[in-house]
């Protein structure tokens, strides 16, 4: 199974990824987690990423693509779940090229439909370093401008499935499983 979770920051991608990976045994590739690990390790890449992440911007496509490529090849046998990637049209197009080269196109992209008021409430109560009001506003604006166009991109490919991302965590997982079970 080759799938992408698409949604605004705080729409629940990371939360649902845990349940999905537990059910299907696929490889989880979260660019947010990979970047936070670089920041925690104090690497050169982490230093560059930290300032951008805490300001609510997107880390450059080159850095992100470099990070995922090697993990993608490793995850190919089991299937994979991308969470937080792609986030720009350039990342989506690069992913298509990469998967095309491997002869393993995406099966489905699950889009989490959650309104911005709910997202803001969730992120403020989580309180991660990038979860203050000004940064959340910036992240949502960046999402609208750079990530939301991917809804149309995958919809045109016939790969998009929209799931209502509001409700209990297990209730949302059940909605996602109903989509993903088709690709087991
Ligand atoms: P990410 O780590 O991807 O984080 P996110 O979008 O903020 O969160 P997610 O949607 O996973 O929400 P979660 O489940 O945690 O990105 C962080 C930053 O990294 C970006 O801003 C960017 O700078 C950088 N980055 C990452 N990928 C990149 C890329 N590809 N290109 C460039 N830059 C990149 O849920 C949020 C909260 O909601 C949690 O507290 C959770 O407990 C709660 N929640 C979840 N489901 C709920 C529910 N059903 N009801 C109530 N609360 C719920």
TrEMBL record:
<comment type="subunit">
    <text>Monomer.</text>
</comment>
<feature type="binding site">
    <location>
        <position position="91"/>
    </location>
    <ligand>
        <name>AMP</name>
    </ligand>
</feature>
<dbReference type="GO" id="GO:0005524">
    <property type="term" value="F:ATP binding"/>
</dbReference>
<keyword id="KW-0963">Cytoplasm</keyword>
<keyword id="KW-0545">Nucleotide biosynthesis</keyword>
<feature type="binding site">
    <location>
        <begin position="57"/>
        <end position="59"/>
    </location>
    <ligand>
        <name>AMP</name>
    </ligand>
</feature>
<protein>
    <recommendedName>
        <fullName>Adenylate kinase</fullName>
        <ecNumber>2.7.4.3</ecNumber>
    </recommendedName>
</protein>
<dbReference type="GO" id="GO:0005737">
    <property type="term" value="C:cytoplasm"/>
</dbReference>
<comment type="function">
    <text>Catalyzes the reversible transfer of the terminal phosphate group between ATP and AMP. Plays an important role in cellular energy homeostasis and in adenine nucleotide metabolism.</text>
</comment>
<dbReference type="InterPro" id="IPR033690">
    <property type="entry name" value="Adenylat_kinase_CS"/>
</dbReference>
<dbReference type="InterPro" id="IPR000850">
    <property type="entry name" value="Adenylat/UMP-CMP_kin"/>
</dbReference>
<keyword id="KW-0808">Transferase</keyword>
<keyword id="KW-0067">ATP-binding</keyword>
<feature type="binding site">
    <location>
        <position position="36"/>
    </location>
    <ligand>
        <name>AMP</name>
    </ligand>
</feature>
<keyword id="KW-0418">Kinase</keyword>
<feature type="binding site">
    <location>
        <begin position="84"/>
        <end position="87"/>
    </location>
    <ligand>
        <name>AMP</name>
    </ligand>
</feature>
<dbReference type="GO" id="GO:0044209">
    <property type="term" value="P:AMP salvage"/>
</dbReference>
<feature type="binding site">
    <location>
        <position position="31"/>
    </location>
    <ligand>
        <name>AMP</name>
    </ligand>
</feature>
<feature type="binding site">
    <location>
        <begin position="10"/>
        <end position="15"/>
    </location>
    <ligand>
        <name>ATP</name>
    </ligand>
</feature>
<dbReference type="Pfam" id="PF00406">
    <property type="entry name" value="ADK"/>
</dbReference>
<feature type="binding site">
    <location>
        <position position="126"/>
    </location>
    <ligand>
        <name>ATP</name>
    </ligand>
</feature>
<comment type="similarity">
    <text>Belongs to the adenylate kinase family.</text>
</comment>
<comment type="pathway">
    <text>Purine metabolism; AMP biosynthesis via salvage pathway; AMP from ADP: step 1/1.</text>
</comment>
<feature type="region of interest" description="NMP">
    <location>
        <begin position="30"/>
        <end position="59"/>
    </location>
</feature>
<dbReference type="GO" id="GO:0004017">
    <property type="term" value="F:AMP kinase activity"/>
</dbReference>
<feature type="binding site">
    <location>
        <position position="128"/>
    </location>
    <ligand>
        <name>AMP</name>
    </ligand>
</feature>
<dbReference type="InterPro" id="IPR027417">
    <property type="entry name" value="P-loop_NTPase"/>
</dbReference>
<feature type="binding site">
    <location>
        <position position="167"/>
    </location>
    <ligand>
        <name>ATP</name>
    </ligand>
</feature>
<feature type="binding site">
    <location>
        <position position="139"/>
    </location>
    <ligand>
        <name>AMP</name>
    </ligand>
</feature>
<keyword id="KW-0547">Nucleotide-binding</keyword>
